[in-house]
C-alpha cells in the first residue's frame, strides 16, 4: 500500500473521531446549560442540538431562546465540567482541522494534481 493512501485513511479516521468527540461535547454543554437555566428536558435539548443535517438549526434556536431563562443555579462541579467540555471541543475542532489538512495534502500528492 502506498504511504499517501495510508495517511488519507488515518486522517479520515481521525477526522471522524474528532467529529464524534465534538458532537458529544456539544451535547454535554447543552445539557449542563439547560439544567442550570431550569429548562424542561435538558437531555432532549442536547440531542436536538447535535442532530440535524448541519447540526446548527436547533443550536441557533436554543441559543436565541435561552435568553428568556437566566441561570438559576449552577454548581461549581458543573462549571468546571462546562469549562472542561469547552477545552475538549477546542481540541476536537483542532483535530478535525489538522486531519482534514493532512487528508487534502495527501490526496493532492496521491492523485498527482499540479497547480
Summary, kept brief:
The chain is mainly α and 115 residues long. The chain has one domain (3-108). Helices cover 77% and strands 0% of the residues.
Q: Flag low-confidence runs.
A: none
Which shape, going by the Cα principal axes? elongated
Total E-strand runs: 0
Please identify the structural class as seen in this structure.
mainly alpha
Question: DSSP helix count?
Answer: 4
Helix content: over 70%
Order of helices and strands: HHHH
Main sheet characteristics = none
Textual characterization of the structure:
- 77% of the residues lie in helices and 0% in strands.
- The protein has 115 residues and is mainly α.
- The radius of gyration is 18 Å and the shape is elongated.
Q: Layout of helices and strands, plus pairs?
A:
Elements: H1 3-37, H2 42-50, H3 57-65, H4 76-111
Helix pairs in contact: 1-2, 1-4, 2-3
List keywords for this structure.
115 residues, 4 helices
